[in-house]
Amino acid sequence: MNIDQVKAALREQRIETPSWGYGNSGTRFKTFAAPGAARTVWEKLDDAAEVQRLTGIAPSVALHIPWDEVEDYGELRRYAEERSLSIGAINPNVFQEDVYKLGSVTSPFEEVREQAIGHLLDCVEVMKQTGSRDLSLWFADGTNYPGQDDLRARKRHLRAALKRVHDALPDGARMLVEYKLFEPAFYYTDLFDWGAAYAHCLAVGEKAQVLVDLGHHAQGVNIEGIVAFLLDEGRLGGFHFNARRYADDDLIVGTTNPFELFAIYAELVAAEQSSDDLTRTTAQNVAYMIDQSHNIEPKVEAMLYSVLNCQEAYAKALLIDRDLLREAQAAGDVLGAHRVLADAFRTDVRSLLAEVREEMGVPADPIATYRASSYQQKVAQERGTAAGGGGYPVKEKVLADK
Ligand code: PSV
Ligand code: MN
Prior knowledge:
single chain; alpha/beta; TIM Barrel; 5-stranded parallel sheet; 12% strand; globular; binds alpha-D-psicofuranose
């Protein structure tokens, strides 16, 4: 790739931000109130518009329903469009109602399973009204004790639910199936890893693809390997980017895991350039989404960091000398091949990115510009400080604040 091609690819890069990353959020122990944190979906869109204005590569926002429920989704869509945004993935929420204590679509109770499927189907309607392409599915379903429930029955319930929702999707829409090894269930999770998600996707149909959330793996798992496999199978649908140290920490992507992020983008760039049609089109349609619930960090600045860290990782991945890499790999040159990759990772891309940003009409240093602006003071003044809370996770808190 010559430098003009690298710059063109960087201009085309897109990262979707999550509405829930702009609100107050915390841990099981405490939610600290951040002055000016968005209180409603409208304010979340205002913040997302600021991130887009400063970066130029974050023009869509994922919604979580019912956290972001509104009377008129057409109005929400227009509000977004007036701010140069579009509505991204719709995330149904089947983990907060009391009835879901033993699971949603895998509950042992048929009426509960039907309620959950009903909500998923309602979210397909929300997709139609907001112009969203992707239904992003994550289930908190699982069990806490051996013997608690019939694991094969739960698998069959999950399959049946996914199939019904899949078949209700309009043309051109997709469902992204997210897995997570544990939490909130601690003994068994119904969608426990990428293989389980992949098997369900294959069984339910072409519109089903796997979503990889970086936080949802055990220590040491090679995520770029999973990414390469799913790209080659044509079943990688999207990402939830974040960084983790221990569990699903939801830290800013690229802070603790910059090399992992780079290695993932390296696989994606290779797939974008592949001569295999399926791999290439799969890579071109990947939904790049952030999934972070900021705990102690200021929300808008945290989101800016996240988007820019993805931009930096992508730039470095674009700079990999692919011919040299192929040559070294074909010769079995272990460290020669590694060196090609490491060289790209070590490249300082800050001035390249500053140039690209200026060409795109956004600030060369979006964080510095944001810090020098009065946006944070303005929203703090207008919105005040929404109640934080004690010992309650973000997700329940956001709902309680509605
Ligand atoms: C679950 O931990 C998760 O990663 C899912 O994507 C949810 O939709 C999201 O976090 C927000 O709760
Ligand atoms: Mn996620």
